């Protein structure tokens, strides 16, 4: 237990050990551990970011879906309106057409009636005249009864 | 256990176990003594004559050196004659072996470091690095100094390994070594004051170096002369501060040495209770044996605590002293 040169030998050994540890053991180990810590930190950050991205994308998707729905609704509404309008228009048109056809038919009929009346009038007058002529030729001269005939014709016209 | 088998008294057994293997210079005219082996007088004399030595008629063969030279010490008188320039071979061997083992394992782990597939050894080493780094970061707050953390790691791991040698049964290595012709062997380097003092002195030298480096020489002188009473009490300040300064390495060295030496001593005392001379075994002797085995187990378990604690304390105080060395001088 007395002190001797071992003291110096041990100091040299200690110095060498510390130097070796200082140069070749501590720095690489610490550096590697710090690198690992950074890698883990970066990984956590990345995963957080990507989680955020996923949430963002989901929201965007929902928004797009909602937009598409409103768009579709709009389109459907438009189509409904359009079709209603078309139906309405065609109804109107049909009514008009009907009225027009009915109107023209009526005027045709009226014309026909007038024509028929005229023809009837003419036919009736000439037949009456011929009948009268026949009768009168046998009994009296024509000129004597012209006035009476005209008068009765006027009355007929009325 | 070895006390009876090698024919020693318990006193001699203790002394034998507490003596380092010393290699040093011996002057011409020094008388060396060797233990004479043999069952009777005649046998011992023959043993000595075989080695060309003189038998002293009692226990030893003597040899008077004719010239100066370096020898392994055989007993206390040899060690005393060697003086300062002697080496404790066993302390040097085991400390360098353990220090080398520590650096080898750590350097290999650093070389094979894997970021994503760590081995269990690597995880353990990372744990150590993390632990030391935490201690250093928590305590050493001043200037940037890259030396402190690796030094703390070296001290902790090295002292821990050396202390752990204390848990190896006391005769496991020295007894076979003695059979191989090695006269003394202490396997726990930290029970050698030389080793603990060398660590403490190295730390002290670094303390002085960093003190002067950070405060400047004048600042350092001021820090030990103007504290704690102010300039008008300069002699008293110097007296107190120098004692304070010297107490640092002294307490470092003696704390570790004292704890481990005492622990080793208790292991030896317990080992003295155990006998393997079965022919002489009585009931009481059997009880003593069992008690010795039980006690050594209990002491070993308790000693694990001391082993780790002392390594930690030495490391912690080193970091604290390094921090003090970097503190700027303040007027209180």
From TrEMBL, chain A:
The keyword Transmembrane applies. Keywords: ATP synthesis, Cell membrane, CF(0), Hydrogen ion transport, Ion transport, Membrane, Transmembrane, Transmembrane helix, Transport. This is ATP synthase subunit b. Component of the F(0) channel, it forms part of the peripheral stalk, linking F(1) to F(0). The b'-subunit is a diverged and duplicated form of b found in plants and photosynthetic bacteria. F(1)F(0) ATP synthase produces ATP from ADP in the presence of a proton or sodium gradient. F-type ATPases consist of two structural domains, F(1) containing the extramembraneous catalytic core and F(0) containing the membrane proton channel, linked together by a central stalk and a peripheral stalk. During catalysis, ATP synthesis in the catalytic domain of F(1) is coupled via a rotary mechanism of the central stalk subunits to proton translocation. F-type ATPases have 2 components, F(1) - the catalytic core - and F(0) - the membrane proton channel. F(1) has five subunits: alpha(3), beta(3), gamma(1), delta(1), epsilon(1). F(0) has four main subunits: a(1), b(2) and c(10-14). The alpha and beta chains form an alternating ring which encloses part of the gamma chain. F(1) is attached to F(0) by a central stalk formed by the gamma and epsilon chains, while a peripheral stalk is formed by the delta and b chains. SUPFAM superfamilies: F1F0 ATP synthase subunit B, membrane domain (SSF81573). It is found in: Cell membrane; Endomembrane system. PANTHER family: ATP SYNTHASE SUBUNIT B, ATP SYNTHASE SUBUNIT B', CHLOROPLASTIC. It comes from SAR86 cluster bacterium. The keyword Transport applies. Its main location: membrane. One of its GO terms (cellular component) is plasma membrane. HAMAP family: ATP_synth_b_bprime. It is a single-pass membrane protein. The gene is atpF. Belongs to the ATPase B chain family. One of its GO terms (molecular function) is proton-transporting ATPase activity, rotational mechanism. Residues 79-99 are annotated as: Disordered.
Automatic annotation (TrEMBL), chain B:
Keywords: ATP synthesis, Cell membrane, CF(0), Hydrogen ion transport, Ion transport, Membrane, Transmembrane, Transmembrane helix, Transport. GO terms for biological process: proton motive force-driven plasma membrane ATP synthesis. It is a multi-pass membrane protein. SUPFAM superfamilies: F1F0 ATP synthase subunit A. Its main location: membrane. It is found in: Cell membrane; Membrane. One of its GO terms (cellular component) is plasma membrane. PROSITE patterns: ATPASE_A. The chain crosses the membrane at residues 85-107, 147-165, 193-212, 265-291, 297-322. GO terms for molecular function: proton-transporting ATP synthase activity, rotational mechanism. InterPro entries: ATP_syn_F0_a_bact/chloroplast, ATP_synth_F0_asu, ATP_synth_F0_asu_AS, F0_ATP_A_sf. It holds the Pfam family ATP-synt_A. Belongs to the ATPase A chain family. Key component of the proton channel; it plays a direct role in the translocation of protons across the membrane. This is ATP synthase subunit a. It comes from SAR86 cluster bacterium.
């Amino acid at each position: 237990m007395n002190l001797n040169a071992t003291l110096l030998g041990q100091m040299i050994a200690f110095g060498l050990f510390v130097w070796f540890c200082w140069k070749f053991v501590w720095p690489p180990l610490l550096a590697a551990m710090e690198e690992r810590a950074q890698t883990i930190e970066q990984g956590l950050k990345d995963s957080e970011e990507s989680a955020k991205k996923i949430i963002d994308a989901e929201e965007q998707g929902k928004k797009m879906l909602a937009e598409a729905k409103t768009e579709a609704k709009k389109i459907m509404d438009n189509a409904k309106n359009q079709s209603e309008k078309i139906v309405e228009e065609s109804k109107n048109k049909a009514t008009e057409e009907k009225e027009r056809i009915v109107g023209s038919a009526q005027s045709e009929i009226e014309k026909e009636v007038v024509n028929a009346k005229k023809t009837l009038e003419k036919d009736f007058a000439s037949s009456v005249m011929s009948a009268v002529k026949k009768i009168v030729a046998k009994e009296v001269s024509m000129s004597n009864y012209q006035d009476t005939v005209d008068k009765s014709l006027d009355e007929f016209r009325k | 256990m070895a006390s009876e088998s090698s024919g020693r008294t318990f006193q001699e057994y203790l002394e034998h176990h507490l003596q380092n293997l010393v290699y040093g210079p011996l002057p011409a005219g020094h008388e060396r003594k060797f233990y004479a082996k043999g069952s009777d007088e005649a046998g011992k004399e023959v043993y000595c004559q075989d080695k060309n030595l003189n038998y002293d008629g009692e226990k030893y063969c003597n040899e008077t050196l004719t010239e100066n030279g370096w020898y392994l010490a055989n007993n206390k008188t040899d060690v005393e004659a060697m003086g300062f320039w002697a080496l404790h071979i066993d302390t040097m061997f085991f400390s360098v072996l353990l220090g080398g083992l520590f650096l080898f394992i750590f350097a290999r782990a650093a070389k094979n470091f894997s970021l994503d597939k760590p081995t269990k050894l690597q995880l353990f080493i990372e744990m150590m690095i993390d632990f030391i780094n935490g201690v250093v970061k928590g305590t050493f707050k001043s200037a940037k100094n890259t030396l402190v953390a690796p030094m703390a790691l070296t001290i902790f791991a090295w002292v821990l390994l050396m202390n752990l040698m204390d848990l190896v049964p006391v005769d496991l290595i020295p007894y076979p070594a003695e059979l191989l012709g090695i006269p003394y062997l202490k396997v726990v380097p930290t029970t050698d004051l030389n080793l603990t003092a060398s660590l403490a002195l190295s730390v002290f030298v670094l303390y002085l170096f960093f003190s002067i480096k950070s405060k400047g020489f004048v600042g350092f002188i001021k820090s030990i002369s103007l504290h704690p009473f102010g300039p008008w009490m300069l002699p008293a300040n110097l007296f107190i501060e120098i004692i304070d300064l010297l107490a640092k390495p002294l307490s470092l060295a003696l704390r570790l040495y004292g704890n481990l030496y005492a622990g080793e001593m208790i292991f030896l005392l317990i080992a003295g209770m155990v006998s393997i001379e079965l022919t002489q075994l009585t009931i009481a002797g059997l009880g003593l044996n069992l008690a010795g085995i039980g006690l050594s187990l209990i002491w070993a378990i308790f000693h694990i605590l001391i082993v780790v604690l002392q390594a930690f304390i030495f490391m912690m105080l080193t970091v604290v002293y390094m921090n003090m060395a970097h503190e700027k001088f303040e007027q209180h």
